[in-house]
Specification:
Blueprint: H1 2-10, H2 12-61, E1 69-71, E2 84-87, E3 106-111, E4 114-122, E5 128-134, H3 135-171, H4 173-183, H5 203-248, H6 253-284, E6 292-295, H7 296-306, H8 308-313, E7 317-319, E8 327-330, H9 332-349, E9 355-363, E10 366-373, H10 404-415, E11 418-423, E12 433-440
Parallel strand pairs: 7-9
Antiparallel strand pairs: 1-2, 2-5, 3-4, 4-5, 6-8, 9-10, 10-12, 11-12
Bound molecules: adenosine-5'-diphosphate and magnesium ion.
Length: 442
């Protein structure tokens, strides 16, 4: 019983069936009571009309009653239809109720244990005759005919309830079909549901499911691409490292030193690549570390200090011509990663002896970190693609994974910021890439 209740509580179809069936039964009961009452009173009126007609006949034909009473029972006539005639000028001794001065119309009289419906007429020769019918019998006739009026209703209600349930079940068929379709293993990986074959009411729901499925499909595809690219990126340096390690033993002592250095450099590059891969994978996740108020100037100076060995190696002239310190609300390591990737790119892709300028400004509700270099810039047709993971410029000879800008974009989109890349056209000291980072102020 509890199970059925729970099912009805959860299922719209069961609830709809139960409520409509209940409404049909209640309305049928009310209409049954009404039609029983109306039929009952109409049957009474019909019987009164019979008495009235009979009276009119007696009056018009001048019929006189010989004796005190007359039973109008005729063979083959239903016993219930009996009408008795009584002469009111000769009341029977046990019949005091039928008084001589009864009015010439209808009345109901109780005689001992019986009740009578009486209609009094006066004939042309002054005889007053009472046409009487047994009230109990009249009630029985009226009840029978009223009950007969209920019969169609008694048959129709169960048929109606069954029909309603059948129609509702059919109406909900598309919903069951939809569930079947979703459960069926599909050859189409996108597993789209045909939106045109479902009723209008559930179409928005199906559109949302399709959108969800397509997002899911795209994110799975992205993950697949990332894993394939990561495997590819890692395979090359690791294979090279293995080969170097294998040949190390066979080398002369003096050569071994050089090879060992190369091996160490290779291992270092692989470590950096792995760190980039992990950073990218992490940047896809929801952050688990708390946001903090960070000084942009402090983190930028930290990044530049950490990159000094590269700056010196490439003899880069790095400076901060404009500093307007602002605070942003970010995970500190995210801010560090963003600035480090941009400044690192500028140093890496600028030729020996080049210049890099880092400026910090407040722009409306944003903090702007602008990094300008004197490198070759990025060909216009590659400007959009460089933000994609694993995309590396066609014209660069530097080592890299192609993940740096993808990581920056991911972190910025989560922080409500954005990155703008353009080739500098100021014709002055810089003619390389201009990277503008905008982060909402704290
Ligand atoms: N300052 C820059 N000057 C010229 N090209 C750049 C600069 N920054 C990035 N790029 C180009 O964008 C590509 C993607 O950069 P990034 O995502 O950091 O990957 P990676 O540096 O590992 O190659 C680089 O391969 C390079 O071609
Ligand atoms: Mg880079």
């Amino acid at each position: 019983m509890d199970g059925i209740k729970r099912r009805i509580g959860r299922s719209i179809r069961a609830r709809l069936s139960a409520w409509i069936s209940l409404v049909v039964v209640i309305i049928s009961l009310i209409s049954g009571v009404l039609s029983f009452t109306v039929s009952f009173y109409e049957a009474h009126e019909l019987q009164d009309d019979q008495l009235r007609q009979f009276g009119a006949l007696i009056k018009r034909q001048g019929i006189t009653l010989q004796g005190a009473s007359l039973d109008l029972a005729v063979n083959n006539i239903d016993h219930e239809a009996r009408i008795y005639l009584r002469d009111l000028s000769h009341p029977l001794s046990d019949n005091e109720e039928f008084a001589h001065n009864m009015p010439d119309s209808f009345s109901t009289i109780n005689e001992q244990h019986k009740s009578w419906r009486v209609y009094v007429v006066e004939t042309v020769n002054g005889q007053r005759i009472a046409l009487t019918q047994d009230t109990a019998l009249r009630n029985e006739i009226a009840r029978d005919s009223a009950l007969r009026a209920l019969f169609p209703l008694l048959f129709l209600v169960p048929i109606l309830v069954t029909l309603i349930n059948f129609i509702i079940a059919r109406m909900f068929l598309p919903v069951s079909r939809l569930a079947e379709e979703l459960n069926r293993p599909s050859s189409d990986e996108r597993c789209r549901i045909d939106e045109d074959s479902v009723p209008d009411e559930i179409q928005p729901f199906v559109v949302s499911i399709n959108r969800l499925l397509s997002n899911l499909y795209e994110s799975v595809e992205k993950q697949k691409r990332f894993i394939a690219n990561a495997a590819h990126e890692l395979r090359t340096p690791i294979t090279a490292l293995c080969l170097q390690a294998e040949t190390l033993d066979a080398e002369e002592r003096s050569d071994r030193e050089v090879k060992f250095k190369r091996l160490r450099a290779g291992l270092n590059r692989t470590k950096i690549l792995l760190e980039q891969l992990l950073a990218h994978a992490r940047s896809q996740d929801e952050p688990k570390l708390p946001l903090e108020i960070c000084s942009v100037q402090q983190y930028t100076q930290e990044v530049i200090a950490d990159l000094i060995p590269h700056v010196q190696r490439k003899q880069i002239d790095i400076g901060m011509p404009y500093i307007e310190d602002t605070n942003v609300r970010m995970i500190p390591i995210d801010l560090y990663t963003v600035v480090k990737n941009i400044v690192d790119n500028a140093i890496r892709y600028t030729p020996l002896g080049g210049q890099v300028d880092v400026s910090l400004r407040r722009r409306f509700e944003f903090c702007e970190i602008c990094v300008l270099d004197s490198g070759p810039g990025i060909p216009e047709h590659e400007l959009v693609r460089v933000k994609e993971p694993f995309f590396r410029g066609s014209e660069n000879l530097e080592q890299g994974s192609g993940l740096g800008l993808a990581i920056v974009s991911q972190i910025l989109s989560r922080a409500g910021g954005k990155m703008v890349l353009s080739n500098s056209v100021d014709g002055g000291r810089h003619h390389g890439l201009k990277v503008q980072i905008f982060i909402p102020l704290a």
